[in-house]
Amino acid sequence: MLSKVTMKTLPESFRPFDARMLSVGDGHWIYVEEVGTKGGRPIVFLHGGPGSGSQALHRTLFDPARDHVFLIDQRGAGRSHPYLSCKANTTADLIADLEMVREHFAIAKWMLVGGSWGSTLAIAYAERHPERVSSLVLRALFLGTDEEVRWAFVDGPRIFRPEMFEAFCNHLPPDERKDPLAAYVKRLTDPDRAIQAPSAHVWFAYERALSELAPKNTALPDNVPSDARLPPTSIIEAHYIKNSFFLEPGELLSNAHRLAGIPGTIIQGRYDLLCPPKNAYALAAAWPGARLEIIDHAGHSMTEPGVMDAMRRAIND
């Protein structure tokens, strides 16, 4: 979870100097804001989730006097429309949207910065369009595999947060608890809001707590009204999980050779339960020119101690 940074608490230099909605087809409009110095070093920030949306705090990773930063809310996320739409929402669609944004602003090459799912999308884009990427700064590396998803929501919590995993399972009917991941994905992708909404709130709280090394609140919500506003990420995440993130098995790691010649840094929390360090090590070994920095005493979230400072250093370098 991000700390509460808002437009009102940000210095003027970190506020957008322009923002617009771009039509990318298929009925989708994506929100794009520009921060920093127009004509400066071009950088695109890719939020996580999928579905979380860009936040005010993300702007503070950059140097507004030097950088021209594009923060994009991906399809169905944040301020993009329609909200939480999974129609025509695939990894290939998001890559095509990035290319549309790049061409719209006449950018030859740009730096990609992203964490968690944002790192996945950055790698997928860079492997598809290496000639368009000047460098990469990635956090909490996720390669988009079914194995990683099962670790994040089942195997890891079962080992390190068994009480939370038990509570997660207990929010399901007894006959669905044998395979809780499949059960939640089925519920989250069900068109019936009465089925979808309670699971969305439980999933969101569960993932939020797992993202922190020392979460302040590990309780999962009970009796969520079916008409309560759906939280970000849960619905779109389930859509992507159901479709294996629209990637072939092992695709990003097997194509890592395409990143040769692109400099990059991977920032990885030592105790990241959602995206453990072995994935970062695997990509660093397969990506010529990558630098891996492990942050001790940190979990998954960008606001874990030392993570944002490491990201800022990597971006500045």
Describe it.
With 317 residues, this protein is of the alpha/beta class. The chain folds into 2 domains: 7-145 and 248-316, Alpha/Beta hydrolase fold, catalytic domain (Rossmann fold), CATH 3.40.50.1820; 146-245, no CATH class. It has 10 helices and 8 strands. It has helices spanning 91-104, 117-128, 146-160, 162-170, 180-188, 193-210, 234-242, 251-254, 277-286, 307-316, and strands spanning 18-25, 28-36, 41-46, 67-73, 110-115, 133-139, 264-269, 290-295. A hairpin with a 2-residue loop joins strand 1 (18-25) and strand 2. It is globular, with a radius of gyration of 19 Å.
In short:
It catalyses: Release of N-terminal proline from a peptide. The chain has 317 residues and is an alpha/beta fold. Helices cover 35% and strands 17% of the residues.
Secondary-structure blueprint:
Blueprint: E1 18-25, E2 28-36, E3 41-46, E4 67-73, H1 91-104, E5 110-115, H2 117-128, E6 133-139, H3 146-160, H4 162-170, H5 180-188, H6 193-210, H7 234-242, H8 251-254, E7 264-269, H9 277-286, E8 290-295, H10 307-316
Parallel strand pairs: 3-4, 3-5, 5-6, 6-7, 7-8
Antiparallel strand pairs: 1-2, 2-4
